[in-house]
Amino acid sequence: MDALVSEVERLECGPAGKVVRKRMLEFKKAGEGRSNEIFRELCFCLLTANYNAEKAIKIQENVGGGFLSLPERALARKLRGEGYRFPNTRARYIVEARKHIPILEDVLKSDSRRDYLVKNVKGLGYKEASHFLRNIGFENYAIIDFHIVDLLVANGLIEKPKTMSKMRYLEIEALLSRLCVKLNLSQGELDLYLWYLETGKILK
Predict the structure, then answer these.
(1) Mind listing the domains of the chain with CATH numbers?
(2) From CA 80, how far away is CA 115, in angstroms rounded?
(3) Mind telling me the catalytic residues?
(4) What is the pLDDT of residues 45-96, one digit of tens each?
């Protein structure tokens, strides 16, 4: 763990640290938007499941308000035209998720917000729900994707899980919490640094 702490501390003092701090401010600002704007971020996180984050960012920009207004079949066509890998399934998930827009603000005020999203929004697992919450300013949820798992495995901190159950997810999140304490960072900040160590990029 000490080697990883040293790597993150090095990044904090350089250009990556400036980008991370800027990105966290952007997330906080995004969380101050209206429910419709926040819903579009939820759609982005639905798109990222088993898909490339950079490509999902471009699709999010190009679809825009279509996440809110397009009928399911038209949304699927739009996603297919953007080269998205799972157009029909994700279009269905997004259209189904619209029913949560009127209560989204109340859901986000609840301490059980992540569990609610996982249980009630089809297509969101713990990783995607945590990603969504981080991107709208909730900093203390770990986003445990294969990049993070590979980095932790390479540093001898975990064994590679065969499956990512809820229990295993929360165990790894607890490990990352200990890293956060050592570094005086939130889970959201730590994720950006770890993702940068593994990919060389800071996205969202």
Answers:
(1) 2-28+142-199 (1.10.1670.10), 33-135 (1.10.340.30)
(2) 30
(3) 127, 145
(4) 999 999 999 999 999 999 999 999 999 999 999 999 999 999 999 999 999 9
